[in-house]
Amino acid sequence: MVTVEKKNSDFGKKSNFEKKVRELVETGYSGVEEAILACKNCPLHETASNKVIGKGSRTPKVLFIGEAPGKNEDEKGIPFCGRAGKELDKMLEYMRLSEEDWAVINTLKCRPPENRNPKKSELEACKPFLAAQITLLDPKVVILLGNTAEKAYCPGKKLEWGVPEEINGRTALKIYHPAALIYTRSRIETQHALIDKNRGLWE
Ligand code: URA
Q1: What is the residue extent of each domain of the chain?
Q2: Cys-Cys crosslink for 60: which of 34, 93, 103, 162, Cβ 3.0 to 4.6 Å?
Q3: Distance from residue 84's CA to the centre of ligand 1 (Å)
């Protein structure tokens, strides 16, 4: 079990934010789940049918960070359970990750209306949950599925696609969001190449 000191390294040490994250972390993963379910920190909770917390292992080697729930996810309360989820499943298979090796969470736990992009204020409101989840899940590798995940995980930083960097004490890797592969099938080959050159991070 990692110590609270180590856990607080996620997302740096900005006093108020750090305090919120520390408080959440101290409640354990089920405490964080409860806090997400009760959250009214931004207006999205008013229109969401379900909060979408995450799925997968509680001790993942690899943690994927997506963007926000879509229509299917909002209806079911499960991340990546629609078309993007099917692409994610194919990616997991291509990466040869077994069930106990991975988990997936989103930057936002509530669906933005009409699937619009998350607003900065929404990302900020949800960020203590994201940081606490990452700290408690304690993955070796954080895979950022696209630019919104990058914005939330390392604001102000631009990662090269497929080039890993040590950030917040973890290896971060930005690859394409599975939804970006649905309409541009040629990207699948590029995505496979990004995965192939990084297999050493999780194998
Ligand atoms: N896209 C995301 O980023 N997350 C989901 O859960 C579903 C689609």
Answers
A1: 4-201
A2: 103
A3: 7
Q: Is the CB of 118 under 6 A from ligand 1?
A: no
Angle made by CA atoms 41, 154, 49, in degrees to the nearest 5: 35
Class of domain 4-201: alpha beta
Ligand 1 close to Cβ of residue 148 (< 6 A)? no
Q: Average pLDDT of each block of 10 consecutive residues along the chain (203 residues)?
A: 44 80 98 98 98 98 98 98 97 98 98 96 97 98 98 96 96 97 93 98 97
* Of 49, 51, 73, 115, best ligand 1 pocket probe by most atoms within 8 Å of the beta carbon: 73
Would the pTM count as exceeding 0.90? yes
